[in-house]
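Aminotransferase class I/classII large domain-containing protein structure dump, as promised
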Amino acid sequence: MRDFALEVHFSHWEFKARYHMTASDAESLSVADLLALAGPGAAESLLDGWLGYTEPKGSPDVLAAVAATYDTLSPSQILCFAGAEEGIYAAIRVLLTPQDHAIVVVPNYQAAETLPLEICAVTGVPLRAEEGWRLDLDAVRAAIRPNTRLMSINFPNNPTGAVPDRATFDALVDLCRQHGIWLFSDEVYRLLERDEARCLPQVADVYERGISLNVMSKAYGLPGLRIGWLACPDTALLDRIQRYKYYLSICNSAPSERLTVLALGVRDRILARNRALIADNLAELDRFFADYPGLFDWRHPDGGCIGYPKYLGRDGVETFCHDLLEEEGVLLLPSSIYRSELITAPEGHFRIGFGRKGIADGLTALRRFLDRRGNSVTPG
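structure tokens r here:
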């Protein structure tokens, strides 16, 4: 297996850096805060929970709570996992064979590219950076082969935050339907769009071969629960993936499932809180980038809680991120972490997170670094 570059990098720096400015999740909650938010009886339901094995598919109340977040699906069309990554891994392993071909829209979460590459031929279709990270349907159409079995998308996108318009999304679904292609859709940042009108349908709600991936980690800001899921109208496929899961986690943590039910019961309040924090943090970022004209190319992401600005300094983004981490303890992810074997990716970008509290302290350290460096980080 190829190294998971992002996780290798994070395993060394995520808990050592003084300012984690590239976090990909929204601000989390303590158990006490979640129980208080969930209201009377919440603490008792957690404390009364049984610490035995849970059902491999997910406990009935978890499946019902997750299914309620979709427009058309029932609990039988949900399969839970220990986080999103396990869901990606199991689905890719079940769906693809060496005789197949897959299409991956990039940039993307690394596993969406590297896991198919371990199995079969893969074509990357790049988002158009020069056009605001636009999805090019003509490029998707040209990539389709007679043996194309799977297409992987991720919107709001990691790391760009891009969201295609509804017409493009509908055309993509129609294209997959025309060719009988499974459409795997990573939707972990859905409901964090800047404009609610840009929020796309969940693929599993609109396409019979649609597979929607979601998790408690990103938009909800509860990664410590390690609860993710796949949603799909095709229960036969979910049964096959569940059989694969028996070689992995088998089942989820009982306390995590209980806390997930409580969190989804107050999902609107959690999401409203996170969207408000993101709006405040984006205003902070706007002020910061406005103070360094010519040094950064910054645009508001369409959704999610991460952005992908371009660094224009003469020293280059890799040196910039390395020196910033060494001198000020500010962690950013340079574009090398998002390198792709499928395309020549645009260079000079870095990922910055704005879903957590404390962004002002990190920006103060970043200002200190830039002001101290002066000419060495002037625009190229």
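The domain at 51-266 is CATH 3.40.640.10 (Aspartate Aminotransferase; domain 2).
lmk if u need the other ones
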